Amino acid sequence: QLAESGGNLVQPGGSLVLSCVASGFDLDYHAIGWFRQVPGKEREGVACVSGRGPNPTKYYGNFVKGRFNISRDNLRGEVYLHMNNLQPEDTATYYCGATKRGSYYCAMGNMNSWGNGTPVTVSS
User: Fold this and answer.
1) CA–CA separation, 69 vs 81, rounded Å?
2) What distances in angstroms separate CA 36 from CA 52, 55, 67, one per listed residue?
3) Percentage with pLDDT > 90 across the chain
4) What is the tens place of the pLDDT at every residue in 5-58?
5) Short-list 45, 26, 41, 58, CA closest to 94
6) C-beta of residue 117 within 8 angstroms of C-beta of residue 93
7) In Å, how far are 42, 54, 109, 121 from 89, measured between CA atoms?
8) Is the C-alpha dihedral spanning 24, 46, 49, 74 positive or negative?
């Protein structure tokens, strides 16, 4: 089960930290990704963390441009998305997705489980 939290209203240039609690997942054995969706548009990948050990591989969407950082806490079973310099175009519902155990490919189509999302609004 995946549960996102941390979405909020923030001014342009502001920051947020989103959290995904991945209950029942051993984070070493699943790729966990953040995705976002605006009504009427396709869901897109934001960031993903995959791989075993203390230095997993991280992937980011091209639009992130160094503003976001994905991290995970294996002991807590949580994956975080630190977002800085947020802009109005970042407004969306952000979803957490996870692959099946033993699958490390971060593509959205490879995600097997999804949370219900947390809304982020960037506006002055």
Assistant:
1) 6
2) 25, 25, 15
3) 98
4) 999 999 999 999 999 999 999 999 999 999 999 999 999 999 999 999 889 999
5) 45
6) yes
7) 14, 33, 24, 9
8) negative
Q: Which residues contact 21 (CB under 8 A, 6 or more apart)?
A: 2, 3, 5, 76, 77, 78
Compute φ and ψ for 4, nearest 5 degrees: -95, 155
pLDDT in tens, 85-102: 999 999 999 999 999 999
DSSP 47-116: EEEE-SSSS-EEEE-GGGTTSEEEEEETTTTEEEEEE-S--GGG-EEEEEEEPPTTB----GGG--EE--
Q: Using alpha carbons, select from 103, 97, 110, 115 the residue that is nearest to residue 52.
A: 103
pLDDT, tens only, 45-71:
999 999 998 899 999 999 998 999 999
Tell me the residue type at 54: P
User: Which residue, 108, 101, 115, is CA-closest to 2?
Assistant: 115
| pLDDT recorded at residue 40 | 94
List residues bridging with 92 in a β-sheet.
120
